[in-house]
Every structure is written in structure tokens, then in C-alpha cells.
Amino acid sequence: MAENIKVLLNTVVEKNASDIHLHVDKPPTMRLNNKLIELEEKSLIPDDTLAYMKAIASSEQQAEVEKVGGTDFGYAFEDKARFRVSIYRQKGNINIAMRLIPYKFLGFEELGLSHHIKELCYRPRGLVLVTGPTGSGKTTTLATMIDHINSSRDCHIITIEDPIEYYHTHKKSIVTQRELGADVPSFPEALRRGLRQDPDVFLVGEMRDLDTISAAITAAETGHLVFGTLHTTGAARTVDRIVDVFPIDQ
């Protein structure tokens, strides 16, 4: 079964699909150009998806599925790509959704990003938010920006993610990548600890609550460049979202 999933993931990488779904009572299905395409004729049975989980998840991750019904983590597929994995229970069975994360960083031009976006990478301090719905390219955009800073500036970059998706090697900068659960308990705690580690740049994987947003703003106000994401559409909605998170007295 381990070989079977390698064949499936190879197909996803070769076709440059965005996702693959391993769902009981459905053949393995990839998303390509926003269309769902079945990779086999035979539908998966519970033993299939259970075996797939055992092939890609650690014993700790499998225990988390057993305990709380699901888990999310990053998975390195040989030297070809990484996947963001979400394992979850549905009708008592194991299902798996995997999103492709290429090893190669895309350039600003390849992503259609203007030179104004690149200029943000040289700001000494401030808060930069990349917003949009799920699947709109927020993570890819931030990975490109962090890679550019890493290649062009003398910085200590701290990324805080859940899970780590793109791996950054040390180039001109030092890059510290911390994963929730494995390295730190929460985004706000990681930010507070990070302030004592001589940082220049922070990447916060998701500005999901008051404590995280407040800690990120504090980091920006104290002379650091902070990047983060929000699931909003448009600048006005982003400001409203941040304001709405805070109590009226703040």
C-alpha cells in the first residue's frame, strides 16, 4: 500500500495538480485546474485509507486522529514536493486530503506580483497582511516574499506555522521555522518567545484570534517586519476584521 500512495503522489506532482482526495467509497481523486479527476476506477475501502494514513503519518499523528478525530501536518514526498496533509474521520472511516506544495519557490513575476509587493520585503518594520479565501495563494505568496528576504537581506527570520509548508534553507539570512505542537504551543506564545531571539522578520501562518493579532501588532510596533494571513477579501474587510476582534474598550 505504501507503493500505491507513491504512485498516486507521483501523478499529482507530474500533472501539477493542486490536491488529492483519498475518500472511502470514491476512487482516488485529484484536483487539476479546479476540476476533480478520478485517478483509478476502483473505489477505496476503509482498509485502503487506513493503510494510506499509516504510510504517511507518524505514530503520534495517528494517535491524534484516534483521540480527536483528525490531524494536520506537512509531509515530504521523496525529493519532489511537500504536501499539506489533513486526515479526518467521516462516518467512522479515515479520509485524507493532501495539498501539493512544490519545493521550488516561484518568482514574483511567475505569481503575477508587482514590484510594489517586492518593495514590501525591504521595509524595516510594519505589518503586512496577505488576504483572500482558501486556495487563493496566500501561503505561496508569503513563501516567495520570505525567500526573497532570505536571499537579499541580512536578517533573522522567524516563521510560525501550522503546519510548516515550505522549507527555507539559510541563505543571506538565518531562518528559524517553528511548528505549532511540535515546537511551540500557540502563535501568540511563539511571537512572545521570538521577541527574545533577536528577530528582524516574523511570518505568522494565520492571524486567527485576538491574542495572535495583538501579539503580531506588538511585534510590528516594536520595530519588526511582520507578515501574516487573514481569510478576508479586500483591504476594507481586513481592517474591519482586525477591529472587530478587539473588545470595545481596546
Automatic annotation (TrEMBL):
<protein>
    <recommendedName>
        <fullName>AAA+ ATPase domain-containing protein</fullName>
    </recommendedName>
</protein>
<dbReference type="InterPro" id="IPR050921">
    <property type="entry name" value="T4SS_GSP_E_ATPase"/>
</dbReference>
<comment type="similarity">
    <text>Belongs to the GSP E family.</text>
</comment>
<dbReference type="InterPro" id="IPR003593">
    <property type="entry name" value="AAA+_ATPase"/>
</dbReference>
<feature type="domain" description="AAA+ ATPase">
    <location>
        <begin position="124"/>
        <end position="249"/>
    </location>
</feature>
<dbReference type="InterPro" id="IPR001482">
    <property type="entry name" value="T2SS/T4SS_dom"/>
</dbReference>
<dbReference type="GO" id="GO:0005524">
    <property type="term" value="F:ATP binding"/>
</dbReference>
<dbReference type="InterPro" id="IPR006321">
    <property type="entry name" value="PilT/PilU"/>
</dbReference>
<dbReference type="InterPro" id="IPR027417">
    <property type="entry name" value="P-loop_NTPase"/>
</dbReference>
<dbReference type="Pfam" id="PF00437">
    <property type="entry name" value="T2SSE"/>
</dbReference>
<dbReference type="GO" id="GO:0016887">
    <property type="term" value="F:ATP hydrolysis activity"/>
</dbReference>
